[in-house]
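look at this one:
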Amino acid sequence: MSRMIFASTVTAIAVFIWSFLLHAATPLGTAGLSSLPNEPALLDLMRANIPDKGLYFFPGVGELDSLSEDQQRAWEDKIKAGPNGLLLFDPAGHEPLSAQQLIIELVNDFLAALLLCILIGYTSLGLWGRVAFGAGIGLMGWLAISVAYWNWYQFPAAYVLAEGFEQVLTWAIAALVLSLVMRRRTAPATDT
């Protein structure tokens, strides 16, 4: 168990550094993101009208199950006519790249690396099979989450593709690091 914890820790640090480099030194960190046009005026309107931190879907509808057919049709017409989308909003703001965020990310990377370590332990794959397994885990997560967000919430394709590249490559590298750290050292054979 201590080898798994050690290997997961080393892997989490590798994933953390790799992800930072991808976001800080490549265009992947901003792929598909745009700045708001006329941002100061829009921010003033948002501050005046959205009091609480949250994820907002618009046009809002309430509970679909409680709508009459006419109300549901009216809402569908609003969606078709636009604009529509998601707005992640924090009226109070926060410190960018705070120590708390970095610690949470590192703990998250550790837990994901530990889970990958456990899953790889159930396989009998060689080194490159494990790397492919890690890439498959990244691909599965991307398909289940990011592609679904692209489909249902219209996330930009560039953002979703960058996420896919990052997830597949990151978890392939994680599997490689885990495998190298966990590799059992065998004593050299001696002739007697």
In short: Residues 2-34+94-182 form one domain. Residues 127-153 form the longest helix (27 residues). Residues 185-192 have pLDDT under 50 and may be disordered. Residues 2 and 8 are 10 Å apart (CA to CA).
